[in-house]
Amino acid sequence: MTAPVQPRVLVSGQPVAIATNIINVGPGCPFQIPVGVGTKPQPCITVKWVNLSSRVAVMGQPVLLQVSPGPGAGVCQSAEQIPQGPPVVSAVQPRVFAI
């Protein structure tokens, strides 16, 4: 995945992800859908996040929340916006907590 890009708020030197960030998914998502007699590759391209802070905002946008590594609070989507299941979050920062 690519990192968030807003420059105003950092945690441990890294930008905080906000609701309007479009975080692209790296290669490796093998998702496919049946089409006719074959299949059509539909790799994960973006993630639509659903666990947003109700009290913490950066640049007027709620920040993304993730308690621990593992299945993320969102839905991976193909370029055609076909939902593919939750993203896997590999790391989170443990220094700041929000609701």
How is this structure best described in words?
With 99 residues, the chain is mainly β. The chain has one domain. It is built from no helices and ten strands. The chain has a two-stranded antiparallel sheet with strand order 1-2. Strands 3-4 form a two-stranded antiparallel sheet. Strands 5-9 form a two-stranded antiparallel sheet. Strand 1 and strand 2 form a beta hairpin. The protein starts with 9 loop residues before the first strand and ends in a 10-residue tail after the last strand. The mean pLDDT is 79.
Features:
mainly beta, elongated, two-stranded antiparallel ribbon, 0% helix, 99 residues, two-stranded antiparallel sheet
Summarize the structure.
The protein has 99 residues and is mainly beta.
Evaluate the radius of gyration.
Answer: 15 Å
Strand content: 35-45%
Treating each run of at least 4 consecutive H or I residues as one helix, how many helices? 0
Number of strands: 10
Strand order of the largest sheet: 1-2
What is the oligomeric state here? single chain
Number of domains: 1
Helix percentage range: under 10%
Uncertain ranges: none
SS-based class: mainly beta
**Sheet with the most strands, sense and barrel status:** 2 strands, antiparallel
What's the rounded overall pLDDT mean?
A: 79
- Topology as H/E string? EEEEEEEEEE
Q: What's the overall geometry?
A: elongated
Cα distance spanning the termini? 24 Å
